[in-house]
Amino acid sequence: MGETRHFFLTGCASGIAKHLTGVLLGQGHSVFATDVNLEALENAAREGAWPVERVRLRALDVRDADAWENVFAEAVREFGHIDICMNIAGLLLAAWATDQPINEVHSQIDVNVKGVIFGTRVAARHMVLRGKGHIINIASIAGLTPVPGMAVYAATKYAVRAYSISACMELRKKGVYVTAICPASVQTPMLDGQLHNDAADLFYSGYRMLTVDEIEHAIFKRAMRRRPPYEVHVPRLKTKLAKFVDNFPAVGPIFAPLYQWSGRRRQAQRRAEEQRAK
């Protein structure tokens, strides 16, 4: 990625953001790493031997707009400026449309949508003043196609994608770019938490899960270009099918049973592996 840069990341205690934090620090960059769970974030830093001179660890509840203002301002004071902000923190709680508890509706919308909007808003204001910067928002394949069993989650990821592309249209002329990353299922603790949830079967479909290394490649090689794209789909073939179903939703019920069968089979295999490991 050339010269060293200053990054601001959310959700760094686990999953994609934890992996990216370690990679960025290994490349010599500085990272302002945040998570709602500071203790888990500190544990991740110790486990990864993150260099204290180039990383700052702070608690951040992405649902709190005032917290965003304060923590991002601290990051600017610490590093002088932020080159790239990655809104990665997310929440997946699968449930059938008739059964999703109200608190889960609120929590997914608050974390996945409001968290990204608050973060993009704060980072964009800082970057516009500098005349340059890049904001990367993690959406999902669920932002490209309807997903039975995850109606609320899919709605939040559609919102993240639409917001990111709309904001990019506004900001590009000011030197600031926004890119939405839309991956298929990624093997992370967030997805592991849905292993025993039958409503999440579609997210376990397909011949394999993406790895955090593949998301790293998509971000570093495809998103972080001199002129960043509006969105990046990972992998290309599966997301093309998702876009097709989005354009022609009536074909969804034709494909869905096959993918649900595949997902349930994979869930059963993973559950059996979990039992054997105990």
Distance between the termini: 42 Å
Order of helices and strands: EHEHEHEHEHEHHEHH
Q: How helix-rich are the residues, as a percent range?
A: 40-55%
CATH superfamily: NAD(P)-binding Rossmann-like Domain
CATH fold call: Rossmann fold
CATH class: Alpha Beta
Mean pLDDT: 95
Count of runs of 4 or more consecutive helical residues = 9
Radius of gyration: 18 Å
Q: Which strands sit side by side, in order, in the main sheet? A: 3-2-1-4-5-6-7
Low-confidence stretches: none
Explained architecture:
- The chain has 278 residues and is α/β, with parallel strands linked by helices.
- It has one domain: Rossmann fold (3-Layer(aba) Sandwich).
- The protein contains nine helices and seven strands; from the N terminus they run βαβαβαβαβαβααβαα.
- Strands 3-2-1-4-5-6-7 form a seven-stranded parallel β-sheet, with helices on both faces.
- It starts with 5 loop residues before the first strand and ends with a helix.
- The mean pLDDT is 95.
